[in-house]
Amino acid sequence: MSAEAELRFEDVAAGDELPPLVRGPITTAHVMRWSAAIENWHRIHYDQPFATGHDELPALLINGTWKQHFLVQLVRGWAEPSGWLAKITMSFRGMDLVGDTLTAWGRVTETEERDGLGIVACEIGIRNQRGEDTTPGTATVVLPLRDGPAVPYPFPGLGR
Amino acid sequence: MGFVTEEVAALVGVAGPRFTAVGPLGADELRRFVQAVMEPNPVHWDEQAARESRYGEVVAPPLYVLHSLRRASGTPDPLDRLREEPDWDGLDVAAGFGGLPPIDIPLERVLNGGTEAEFFKLPRLGDTISAQARYVDIVDREGRSGPMVLATIETEYSDQDGEPLARVRSTVIMR
Hints:
- The structure holds two protein chains of two kinds.
- Chain A has three helices and five strands, in the order E-H-H-H-E-E-E-E.
- Chain A is α+β, with helices and mostly antiparallel strands.
- Chain A has a five-stranded antiparallel sheet with strand order 1-3-4-5-2, with helices on one face.
- Chain B has one domain (6-69, 93-174): Hotdog Thioesterase (Thiol Ester Dehydrase, Chain A, Roll), CATH 3.10.129.
- Chain B has helices at 6-9, 27-37, 47-51, 81-84; strands at 15-20, 110-119, 130-143, 146-158, 164-174.
- Chain B has a five-stranded antiparallel sheet, with no helix packed on it.
- In chain B, strand 3 (130-143) and strand 4 (146-158) form a beta hairpin.
- Chain A binds chain B through residues 21, 23, 30, 33-34, 36-39, 41-44, 47, 50, 54-55, 64-66, 68-70, 72-73, 76-77, 80-81, 84-92, 137, 150-151, 153-158, and chain B through 32-33, 35-41, 53-55, 61-63, 66-67, 70-71, 78-79, 87, 89-92, 111-121, 163-164, 171.
């Protein structure tokens, strides 16, 4: 990517939407692959009789751990290589079921210049094909100014 | 009235042991992880792309740290529990508490309420990741399904040089 195409603080305004990311349908195979990769043996992700019988869930669940990374991918896909995802928050409000197609979405809510860098706040979330927003959150991205220095790496933190 | 007695509240500020990964982050482990998480950014596998980035070398995605502490070989198999307890759900509840002393209250269900993460540096291949957790908040809440307790656990992840990688706060809902 050329430097001109990289995101700068001046390119961003409140209300801008992040390019959405879509994954799915997320099948049992995807969820099994993820559970195995992180060595998480929680049966609600791969043992259907257990999930629907013992735990009385509507279906196998897509892992919250996987959804966390999906939101990180959304923000970094938009902000990098020039920007840095400094902070992300999310809460697990609803279930995403095996078979669902998930869309990660984001929108800029606030921009602020601070100490020669651009600080961009976003609201983010994951929505399934039923229209349920299961994983609302926020992201704070640090962007360089058009004529400013690069975002420092390692990043020292946002401070308070 | 609530579950957070003086004794429970005294856990706020208490830190757990420092855990260190069983070994340095290996290329094959990262490959497997990156594929399972469906990571689109080539700095996580392509040396050329990584060299041209701020990272300079292949790195793991920011939240990889959450999964960096694996079970060492030769330690007890957690799945042995299924022999005695076939209805066990496979979830290692204690792992979510990062070795912290347990919150001794009569609430059985433990749910993951959410995550808050700050990122400083991404782990490189060959880095050995360490983690240390502490309680930063324990409060009573009235939920829709009755009383519950929210415990916030902050975990600092660092590399073998003590360089901070990430700070992750997770909220555990007990109800």
